[in-house]
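I trust your eye. Have a critical look at both lines of this record:
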Amino acid sequence: MRVEEAIGRQIARLRAERRMSLTELGEALGRYLDRPWSRQAVHQAERGQRSFTAAELTALALALDTSVPVLFRVEDERIELPGGAVSPEDYRGILLSREPVMPLDGVEELIVALHDIGEVLARPALARLARIGRVADQVAGPDL
C-alpha cells in the first residue's frame, strides 16, 4: 500500500466516525487552508489519489480532531515507497518519536495502544459478547 492510500483510509475512517460528509470536511479544511476542498478533492484524498503538503496534513488533523501521526497509521500492511517497501514494524516505528531526550515517547506509545484497544472494544461482536456475559452473570446469580 502506498503512503497516500494509508492516509486516505485514515481520512475516510475518521470522517465517518465524526459523521462528516465529504462537503463538510472540505469546508472544515477551508478554515485552515486558503480555500475549502471540493467534495471531489476530499474523495480523491480518501482514495489515495493525491499527495499531501505539510499544511494539508496539518489542516486534516485539525479538521478531524486528531494528530498528524494518526493520519499515517495502517494495520499490518507493508508501505510502498518509491525506493522499495517498508515493513509494518519499521513503518509503525517512525510514527513514534525516536529522540532520546523526548520524555513523551512512552506517552505517545501509550496513546497509540489505547487507541488500538478502543477500536477493538468498539467492535460490534465484542459488544454483543459483553452483553451476553452480563446477562449470563445475572441468570447465574450470586452463587457462581
About this structure: The helical segments are 3-17, 22-30, 39-46, 54-63, 68-71, 88-94, 105-121, 124-140. The chain has a mean pLDDT of 82. The radius of gyration is 19 Å. Residues 78 and 124 are 27 Å apart (CA to CA).
